[in-house]
Amino acid sequence: MATLALARALNLGLRRALESDPRVVIMGEDVGKLGGVFRVTDGLQRDFGEDRVMDTPLAESGIVGTAIGMALRGLRPICEIQFDGFVFPAYDQIVNQLAKLHYRSRGTLTVPLVIRIPFGGGIGAVEHHSESPEALFAHIPGLKVVACGNAADAYTMIQQAVACDDPVIFFEPKRRYWERAEVDTDAPLDQAFPLTAARVVREGRDVTLLAYGPSVKLALDAAAAAAEEGREIEVIDVRSLSPLDFHTISSSVSRTGRCVVVHEAPVFLGFGAELAARITESCFYRLEAPVLRVGGFSIPYPPSRLEEHYLPDVDKILDAVDRTFSY
Amino acid sequence: MAVITYRQALHDTLRAELLRDPNVFLMGEEIGVFEGSYKITAGLLAEFGPERVRDTPISEEGFVGAAIGAAMLGLRPVVEIMTINFSILAMDQIVNHAAKIHAMFGGQCAVPMVIRTPGGGGQQLAATHSQNLEVWYAHVPGLKVVTPATPADAKGLLAASIRDDDPVMFIENLALYNTKGEVPEGDYVTEIGTANVMKEGEDITIVSYSRMAAVALDVARRLEEDEGIRAEVVDLRSLRPLDRTTVVESVRKTGKAVVIEEDWLSYGVGAEIAATIQEGAFDYLDAPVRRVAAAEVPLPYAKPLELAALPDATALVKVIHETLDATRFRG
Q: Looking at residue B311, which CATH number applies to its domain?
């Protein structure tokens, strides 16, 4: 066991991936010499060389397009998109090529490519650097979309994503990069918790709270605060937005009868909409209250002085929890 | 009122807006000399000249970016992107620039532009040319997204979009271009953000938009004639802003709702509609809100497979029956 910051755990996970499979390569803006703007790839070019950890020009469409070609020819590239808002120039490559090649070649081709994207706000950055575009990717058939929420998952999930034969969009909670947790670096990967499974991270019987990425810690904080008032919140770290481990979620909501979803992305047409729709359909006769959503406002991401008002917080979550008890 | 096609309604409205406001101009691939891939801009180059009807290179990011600049400086560009699939190449310009500029500059500068683009499948154009990507744009604060289903709304919403000071994604549908309907004459503007109750009914609400709204209306009429089921059909017309009030009031009346959309199910428009309904009409719902949508695969080229992947009237009727049966509506 080691106590690692989330960024460090990713770094170690990437190192393991590079060590265990010579086909694995890393590419992106400033990932090599600089070690990444968040230091996630720190030291990897030094130890594995410029052929395996490659600095690229500032051209996201080019990075992803090149990586798709490399993956088709047998490599297992990991691309870093420096900030969430920078992914849009690569959209065409991701949506029209990456997501569709396996299907369009009737399974002949696989594209084992991981695209790492630091996402979300809370670090005093502005729009383009604090976005949460995950629902857009989750809508596209052919992509796996996952988000890690703590250092232990970061270490394991990045290695599982690299080992996966499907393209994986790997969202990293940038405001949690510096938060530390115990990581079992000796645990065998093939016995790890599955990449696309949701995990109950705190049990409770009164209401189910769904979160992923940076919001998981917030959800746990809210559950701790609620417990002091005698209310037991069950917290599920969804981890995989596509495919969705809906069984774990519906089992919980069928028991509690109440559900709140929290994410940083705007509420409208966000992850919470899909969850509210599915839960209403599947757990209709068990629900005591509508599924409520806590998320960003319907505005572009605000300047840093205002972001604490924009982002979900413990009070907003507890307010939604209270409202589910008013039905 | 004249009965004209959806295509004609778009063409006539573009012409009327070019005549009305000298700041309005058109740009896009093949819209001038070739008169548009779907002939929406037929005759406009000849009438208004190359200053106001501009053929562009095949470079969506370039001409959308140019249009944003023109809009920031006071013009009112109406951009045609040949299909919504090609708008992906301009995604950065649309999402990171057009949508955000008004807020980023503290309201000092508006971006009054329209991007007209058709989506939809069913034309055997295969996986990368048959998508419905409006849900992405509707998720993005700062944009407006409208999706006319009828020739009248094509006219009223296009006029409203061109006169709106925000960037508007104006989503057409390939299969609607030849459909006909009554269109009011003269200056006719439909307020963006208002849904339209296409048909009233008390038994169940069908919510839809664009081509599937037309399918929903046909199904509702047939069910009333054949089975006496009185379905209410709500055409959203605008996805962002969304007219929650009309949707929720309808479901509070009927107690049951089905959403049909041409797009993939997961994280689609129907998700938000179902979420909105359960938030706004929870105590009125007699059955779960059901969604009818496309199979979650890249749309196949082969006709039988394409038809199998797309939602249709049969799928909608089945889900309506299941929803009514869940409440023992039919005894």
A: 3.40.50.920
